[in-house]
């Protein structure tokens, strides 16, 4: 019956007024400075809001259970700690509002939704919550909650819009941030965040060459990620090294700690000494390489998004093991991530029909990675600290002559979670 | 041509001898104490090994590129640091061995595979590697590398075989580990690892009630996972708490830090003081609850494996956000993981047709979680430290009377990566 009425709904344009009531079978048009011109249509299981032709998306749907669940009033979300005070499982099934009306609040238009009693399961600690409840929903807030796949993807991507670079391009536009500015001001930190957001690579200059200074630099972004290498670690040539990084050998392009569930999002390498011959640092934007692969060899690209590579570390009293594809695209939380560390690959564990295609695709990807035009090479000076997005930018090092002088870098990691947290709280968005 | 020859292959049984040659078009049967009775059949792109009827799996296939890539000789894998010295992308495409033969080494049978020159891409640092190469492959090692989906899944699951429990069952079988034994011996640590592996819950007794002792306990398993709560944190009732945990209120069953990419695998709560009325600790095996849901309400179970829940933390200068389904099953690295923390759920971002089913399924899951039979309740005593698998075992706390005494727990986290690492290196397997 309701369905039929809804189908028969007509557009009723009305002037702006307080407490405009939306009939179960009707649509109202609403004008405001914030929402511009919205139309709210009440359906059987949800409301449909037309935000106007210039909005993106132009129309959103909100399920009634969702609306009850996500009431933001102080009885539903704790006003100081922002924790939800009921669970999604407490929402009565198939609930419908008794009424929905539009009210003009001081901060713009709101939907006033009256719920019947019993809209939430009773709870001993929250006696009032099974009573009739009114949700006052900020229309501007609601517009940001559209949960269509496109809108969700758009929000996911809003933090990042990577600028793909090759060696020349990075060389021409490179900018560094002075340590004092970076360490002591949000503005300096914001500059570094922007570089990392767009290019995945950032240089801090004139940092004190103190042993653990790298941890102070890292802590500007969040917590230091401690691993079995320590909170920070030395990169220098030592005898009987447990890791090729700790020799003077050429160190091919790679990423660190691919055998962890969440490999660190940021890596810091702080140069304390560098008087050797050789030992240039090398960086490459793997996202650029993926774009080339995707365009030139779409099948190989597709194989590398499908075939899980096994990463492991079996050494020095540890045995780590984690499987993930080389290229992870468009997942619930990220637009793109790349995982690449050949020395730490274990025997491939992939479906038989994908093994041959994997070797072909991986070779093609590496052909692109070997293009010297893609790499940015530079020599770290004492006091430089390079920061890079470890799941985007590959790093490597040219061989050096260990007898020709001293080379000592100090490294540290920070999680991607923390980096994104900082982007959000400092509102560093495109 | 080769294909035709292979098709025409026949079973040629031969007595054990050194250097038994496997013809391109033939099969040899090989007997040994380790491999028992194996048959190796050379195909166009791979070898096929029959391990014998009692082996599981009874037959494995190994692609030639895979075999070349995973040669374990000291030229291919660094003998001390175990890093691979070439990349999978270096393997020549469509390579085929010149010969494969079976040799009896001191440690059991090996396959001797002769590769033509150019089987790896030339590299300046490894001049010998483009020459002809011989791989000597330990048959016992090879058998463990089967990469069929079943074998890979079997290996993934080998670390764990959870025993699902309810309150009574846990109460009857509960075992604790004495602090001294745990902190000072691998045997004590192994006991704790076994409890956590099987039940996801373990109690250490008689720990010193020192403020940061929980970090010493945590470090037995790996690195302390530092978060914005610190390396360890206080659970006690404080005014204007930023988190409901830091009040005296009833704290519903939940898991911690679901808004991180890799929520900590282990949580530690060390009791320093507990003289209040109330404040029981409550634990529930969510894997048991999932089993019930899966059996009784398979559709709801399926919905909870599909619909990503948004977890967030927007408070105190932080804004974290991560989406993941409530139940994650059979992924590349884990058999099962559960993610549940209603107070930290943000507005659901799910496809429209799944929103209604999600509310129904989530309510059904919580109906199971509310069954008091599933919960194990106990009162932590000063000196007790409870450890639980944070992505399996839900924890909560009964309300307490803050005026009746003191209650002070100290908490810490360790990553799941580290826990699995320890299981592997101490060889704590089923």
UniProtKB/TrEMBL annotation, chains A, B:
Ordered alphabetically, the record's keywords are: Carnitine biosynthesis, Dioxygenase, Iron, Metal-binding, Oxidoreductase
Gene Ontology cellular component?
mitochondrion
**Keyword 4Fe-4S on this protein?**
no
Q: Which Pfam families match?
A: GBBH-like_N, TauD
Describe the location of the TauD/TfdA-like domain by residue ranges: 175-413
GO MF terms held by the record? 2-oxoglutarate-dependent dioxygenase activity; metal ion binding
| Gene3D superfamilies to which the protein is assigned, alphabetical | 3.30.2020.30, Clavaminate synthase-like (3.60.130.10)
Q: Which processes are annotated in GO (biological process)?
A: carnitine biosynthetic process
Q: Kindly give the InterPro entries that the UniProt entry links to this protein.
A: AlphaKG_dependent_hydroxylases (IPR050411), GBBH-like_N (IPR010376), GBBH-like_N_sf (IPR038492), TauD-like_sf (IPR042098), TauD/TfdA-like (IPR003819)
This protein's cofactor list reads:
Fe(2+); L-ascorbate
CDD domains linked to this entry: CAS_like (cd00250)
- SUPFAM superfamilies found in the cross-reference section: Clavaminate synthase-like
Where is each Gamma-butyrobetaine hydroxylase-like N-terminal domain found? Answer: 38-118
Keyword Transport present in the record's keywords: the answer is no
Q: Which family does it belong to?
A: Belongs to the gamma-BBH/TMLD family.
What protein is this chain from?
A: Gamma-butyrobetaine dioxygenase
Tell me the organism.
Answer: Spizellomyces punctatus (strain DAOM BR117)
């Amino acid at each position: 019956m309701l369905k039929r009425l809804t189908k028969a709904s007509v557009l009723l344009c009305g002037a702006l007024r307080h407490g405009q009531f939306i009939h179960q079978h009707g649509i109202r048009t609403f004008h405001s400075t914030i929402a511009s011109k919205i139309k709210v249509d009440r359906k059987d299981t949800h409301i449909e809001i037309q935000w106007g032709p210039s909005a993106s998306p132009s129309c959103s749907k909100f399920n009634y259970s969702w609306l009850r669940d996500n009431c933001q009033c102080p009885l539903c979300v704790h006003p100081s700690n922002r924790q939800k005070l009921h669970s999604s499982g407490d929402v009565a099934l198939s609930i419908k509002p008794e009424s929905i009306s539009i009210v003009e609040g001081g901060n713009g238009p709101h939907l006033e939704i009256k719920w019947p009693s019993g809209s939430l399961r009773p709870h001993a600690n929250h006696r009032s919550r099974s009573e009739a409840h009114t949700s006052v929903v900020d229309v501007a807030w609601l517009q940001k909650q559209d949960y269509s796949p496109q809108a969700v993807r758009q929000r996911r991507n809003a933090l990042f819009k990577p600028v793909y670079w090759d060696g020349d391009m990075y060389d021409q536009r490179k900018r560094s941030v002075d340590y004092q500015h970076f360490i002591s001001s949000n503005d300096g930190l914001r500059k570094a965040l922007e570089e990392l957001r767009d290019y995945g690579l950032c240089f801090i200059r004139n940092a004190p060459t103190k042993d653990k200074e790298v941890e102070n630099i890292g802590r500007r972004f969040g917590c230091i990620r401690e691993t079995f290498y320590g909170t920070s670690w030395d990169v220098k040539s030592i005898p009987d090294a447990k890791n090729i990084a700790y020799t003077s050998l050429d160190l091919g392009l790679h990423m660190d700690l691919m055998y962890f569930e969440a490999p660190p999002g940021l890596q810091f390498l702080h140069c304390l000494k560098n008087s050797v011959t050789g030992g240039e640092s090398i960086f490459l934007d793997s996202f650029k390489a993926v774009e080339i692969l995707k365009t030139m060899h779409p099948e190989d690209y597709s194989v590398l998004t499908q075939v899980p590579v096994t990463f492991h570390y079996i050494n020095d009293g540890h045995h780590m093991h984690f499987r993930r594809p080389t290229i992870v695209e468009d997942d619930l939380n990220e637009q793109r991530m790349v995982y690449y560390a050949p020395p730490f690959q274990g025997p491939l564990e992939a479906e038989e029909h994908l093994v041959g295609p994997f070797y072909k695709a991986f070779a093609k990807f590496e052909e692109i990675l070997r293009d010297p035009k893609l790499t940015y090479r530079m020599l770290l000076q004492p006091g430089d600290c390079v920061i890079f997005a470890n799941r985007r930018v590959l790093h490597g090092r040219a061989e050096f002559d260990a007898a020709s002088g001293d080379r000592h870098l100090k490294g540290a990691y920070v999680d991607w979670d923390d980096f994104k947290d900082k982007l959000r709280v400092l509102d560093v968005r495109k």
